[in-house]
Amino acid sequence: xxxxxxxxxxxxxxxxxxxxxxxxxxxxxxxxxxxxxxxxxxxxxxxxxxxxxxxxxxxxxxxxxxxxxxxxxxxxxxxxxxxxxxxxxxxxxxxxxxxxxxxxxxxxxxxxxxxxxxxxxxxxxxxxxxxxxxxxxxxxxxxxxxxxxxxxxxxxxxxxxxxxxxxxxxxxxxxxxxxxxxxxxxxxxxxxxxxxxxxxxxxxxxxxxxxxxxxxxxxxxxxxxxxxxxxxxxxxxxxx
Length: 240
Ligand SMILES: Nc1ncnc2c1ncn2[C@@H]1O[C@H](COP(=O)(O)OP(=O)(O)OP(=O)(O)O)[C@@H](O)[C@H]1O
Ligand SMILES: [Mg+2]
What we know:
By secondary structure, the chain is an alpha/beta fold. 33% of the residues lie in helices and 25% in strands. A hairpin with a 2-residue loop joins strand 9 (212-217) and strand 10.
């Protein structure tokens, strides 16, 4: 469902962040990316959904090459989950989830009377999927970190994406909440067939929840292996 060929990204002021990444992800796969800080993990996810423009190479989404003419279609079919949740603090959980239906161009309109009853029901269903229905009308800054990330996931899945891009979704959570969030992603992956690409720093979680693990160092893929095959030798490649 996603094919990346020789993807390059150099920021205007810096050295290359992606130095020719080749990657193929099948529909319904759960793939994790491990790599040291600065290796290009975030840049890779942001380039896939057009938050960054690439400096070279190609990305195909459902066999269609992504370009300026269809990137907004790709964005509609892609959900993003962030390390710091990126919620609007003074809004309720349900209103944060509803922002997942907005595209970036109308994000700043005064929005909350624009949603239909049907959309509000969809938002409640998403909150139910993540086990937070009873917190739907709580302000998001009154929720715990794990609950906030669940709102972040509900916001990402309300538009029923084909692809979920998760950038260190559990980096600021304790081990118990981290496991809960990743099992939730796994459940979404299995129930809805959503393809998941997830940046992680925790090797054990990557192995436990994903089908495949990719090692990224210095803007290049150094290994791409089934989770069960990942051992110390692979980890040495990226963390030594
Ligand atoms: N907006 C930007 N402008 C300039 N350079 C950037 C920008 N974003 C990232 N970089 C550089 O690109 C490289 C890759 O950064 P990136 O954030 O993708 O790494 P990462 O693997 O996500 O790291 P971490 O694990 O710390 O989140 C780094 O050298 C970083 O300094
Ligand atoms: Mg990052």
